User: What shape does this take?
Amino acid sequence: MRIHCFSGNGNSAAVAASLGQLLHDESNDILWVFPVYAWGIPPVVVSRIKEMDLNGIRCHMVCTCGDETGNIDRQWHRLILSCGGVPGGIYSVQMPNTYVCLPFFNVDKPEIASQKLNASGQRIDTIAEWLSDRDFRTDLLRGSLPWFKTTVIYPWFCRFLTDSSKFHHTNSCTACGLCSKMCPCHNISTGPEGYPQWDNHCASCLRCYHICPRHAVAYGKRTAGKGQYLHPLFRKLFLISAK
Ligand SMILES: Cc1cc2nc3c(=O)[nH]c(=O)nc-3n(C[C@H](O)[C@H](O)[C@H](O)COP(=O)(O)O)c2cc1C
Ligand code: SF4
Ligand code: SF4
Assistant: This one.
């Protein structure tokens, strides 16, 4: 089984790495691991999958979510069938929240984040067992009003809340260049004095916001006073050397 992963802040990368160690499956199946965005599949993941010819390949998904997934499985079925694939197992793992760009959304308090990380190990073991047993069930933390959230809010998010022109650096920025170097979409260039400038092909992953050592990345006024979070293994997973 091949594993493909998209991860902004390390949660999905850590889950994918654990599953990679636990699974010893020789099949031609593909497993995608990615975060939930607005109760749906991140648009960047949709685009990458649409570029592939899945031609009868069984495709499983594990999504990581701060709280709930909505009806992400319905999107997955439609997407995989439209690319010629066969939908397989669909599972979620609750992990610390990374979304901070709307009022009332913030990272988890440290004790909640620790609880989620501690519980995730058992959950990943269970998903690995299901996949190894070829038990391709759908097992998601759907939450309340899943139809409304995935069918109404997700398209609204894609249309109005993925605008990277709202990103800017605050006066605390030291022009260290880390946000630019680590953007998975190469969406941040540095001007003549080294300060970051955001382009318009952003995946909304918020890595630039969470990784800044000076907490100097802002999204409009909505991130003022919000916290930062990276998975504890982020630096190891993304090979950043300590400074
Ligand atoms: C743009 C965006 C939208 C999000 N939407 C949701 C959501 O609808 N439901 C949820 O439970 N978590 C949501 N989250 C939180 C992430 O899905 C969750 O923290 C995930 O584990 C992050 O994975 P990563 O570290 O691999 O990027 C969102 C995060 C971002 C950045
Ligand atoms: S990571 Fe932070 S301090 Fe470094 S260039 Fe980006 S915004 Fe500035
Ligand atoms: S600009 Fe920031 S939010 Fe957008 S893809 Fe790059 S790191 Fe992610």
The pocket of flavin mononucleotide (ligand 1) is lined by residues 7-13, 35-39, 64-68, 95-99, 204-206, 231 (CB under 6 Å). Residues 110-132 form the longest helix (23 residues).
